[in-house]
Amino acid sequence: MEKLFKLKEHNTTVRTEIIAGLTTFFAMAYIIFVNPGMLVATGMDFNAVMVATCLSAALGTLLTAFMSNTPFAQAPGMGLNAFFTYTLCLGMGIPWQTSLALVLISGVIFLIIAISPLRGIIISSIPASLKKAIGAGIGLFISLIGLFNVGIIQTTPAGLVELGNITQGPALVALIGLIITGVLMAYKVKGAIFIGIIGTTLIGFLFKADPSVPGVMVTQLPESISFLGLKALAPTFGKVFTEGFAGLGAIGIMPIITALITLIICDMFDTVGTLVGTASNAGMLDKDGNLPKGDRAIIADAIATCAGAVVGTSTVTTFVESSTGISEGGRTGLTSVVVGVLFVLAAFFFAPIAGIVPAAATAPALIIVGVLMLKSTMEIDWNDFETALPCFLTIAIMPFSYSISNGIGFGFIAYTLIKVFRGKFKEVPVLMYILSALFIVMYILSNA
After folding, report:
1. Do the Cβ atoms of 272 and 67 come closer than 8 Å?
2. Whole-structure pTM value
3. Model confidence over 155-201: pLDDT tens digits?
4. How far is CA 63 from CA 69, 73, 100, 152, in A?
5. What is d(CA 144, CA 31) in angstroms, rounded to the nearest whole number?
6. Burial call 397-415: b when 16+ CB within 10 Å, e when fewer
7. pLDDT tens digits for range 327-352
8. What distance in Å separates the CA atoms of residue 414 and residue 165, rounded to the nearest whole number?
């Protein structure tokens, strides 16, 4: 382990890395069920997508572990799967097989960018203040995910947000778990977040999920454990080649361009944002503000997107929930190995067991991580409005638009425009002009 992952060099231990891996896996295990539940609306087979979700997550996470020795996990991204389902398939009427072809093409283009010098130039072009804002924005975003998952915060029929019913069900259990985890964190207990997840899961056996439904508790044991096997992949595996590419000619050039720009930008900046923001908060960046071997983590992400399209799922990206394991002390690829192995097991027979951990148990972990990631705002000069506005937009737009890439896009555009109107053209890296323009084009095309 020491030779593979250099644990001493990263000031960590096997025990810490395993706990971090377990924490990350349980924080993101919901994707095993949520992703197929969403993609099934396109006509895809639920079990096939579930296995594809687990296998693509395992591949991307294990590649990250061994290529970059960093503690990040991957899976089909929330937001990107919604774009796949509701925009490409249901909105634009593109068959899911052809939509997978678009995902594969976007993954190949992303891979070309990732292995070229352009990838390093992109990361180094991001101003230091925006890197800090990205970390804080991710913190608010991941907290909002936790709050929404259990109904502490909910949407109104008018599309606004309001406080949900916090006196019963998952919301109440999550608040109890938040107090428990918060107290453990205050006492600086090692593994506080993981202990909080396990403790809240057990508490969930004592509370009804819905008072009107007898016998259904917040935490449920699986009725059975079934072995799916690779045969479950048959309805989706390879369909991108046998049926997907053949349908591209019927779409039209502009829809293809719109889809590819959106997929590439969202995947790239979700990944870069998560890597830079989370690593910055954890003190993992070097003196130049870069994540050591972060380029390899990006390459692993691009490969996983391509593989995901082949087995039958939407865009795979680096998961923001990786920050839960990093907050537990995960610093090397061993954390990712644990996550990857658990996804392999889940692909075949472990999924129902992973489902024992309810959203009420992972929500406190996400909220706590949000607290920890907000500390990066202390390093932003809020007295300088040229810096303050772009950073604020980056932080605010991420949770409010439910998208990491949107937050980065608004921050980039605001930063560039303010500098230009202030006559400080030379302070803006050339690539920032290009990226800001690309974000503007993406917003125009996606709303055309």
Report:
1. no
2. 0.79
3. 998 888 999 999 999 999 999 999 999 999 999 888 888 899 999 99
4. 9, 10, 21, 36
5. 16
6. bbbbebbbbbbbbbbbbbb
7. 899 999 999 999 999 999 988 876 67
8. 38
